[in-house]
Amino acid sequence: MAVWVHGLPSVDLAVPATAAPARVPDGVIPSGAEVRDRAGQYLGEVLVWVGGGHLSAIEYAWVTDEAPDRLPDVSTMTLV
Questions:
Q1: Own/partner pairs for 23-32, CB < 8 Å, 24+ apart?
Q2: 7 compared with 59, residue with greater pLDDT
Q3: Whose C-alpha in 14, 30, 72, 79 is 20 to 30 A from the C-alpha of 44?
Q4: Contacts of 57 (CB under 8 A, 6+ apart)
Q5: What is the model's pTM?
Q6: Is there a contact between 76 and 43 (Cβ–Cβ < 8 Å)?
Q7: 19-33, 41-55, 62-76: the lowest-pLDDT one
Q8: 14: burial class by Cβ within 10 Å (0-12, 13-18, 19+)?
Q9: Reading across the β-sheet that carries 42-51, which strands appear in turn?
Q10: Which residues, other chains included, contact 76 with Cβ-Cβ below 8 Å and sequence gap of 6+?
């Protein structure tokens, strides 16, 4: 687990140098997961980043007033 902004969770990924890179542009992949509470209220989204043709990070972009202190549980996510 890495911290991109003080106190906020993120995950940096390391891919073996022997893994062949995908032919995709760097940045956020055009898919993700919406995060919603039990009442269906939108809380944010989980983004997956690519760098140099490899998965490089997972980020939780939240829209709530209070910043999360952990990544959301998979049961709260829906792929989009």
A1: 23/53, 24/50, 24/53, 25/50, 26/50, 26/51, 26/52, 31/79, 31/80, 32/79, 32/80
A2: 59
A3: 14
A4: 2, 10, 11, 12, 13, 48, 49, 51
A5: 0.79
A6: yes
A7: 62-76
A8: exposed
A9: 2-3, 9-12, 54-62, 42-51, 27-36, 77-79
A10: 35, 36, 37, 43
| HEC secondary structure over the chain | CEECCCCCEEEECCCCCCCCCCCCCCEEEEEEEEEECCCCCEEEEEEEEEECCEEEEEEEEECCCCCCCCCCCHHHEEEC
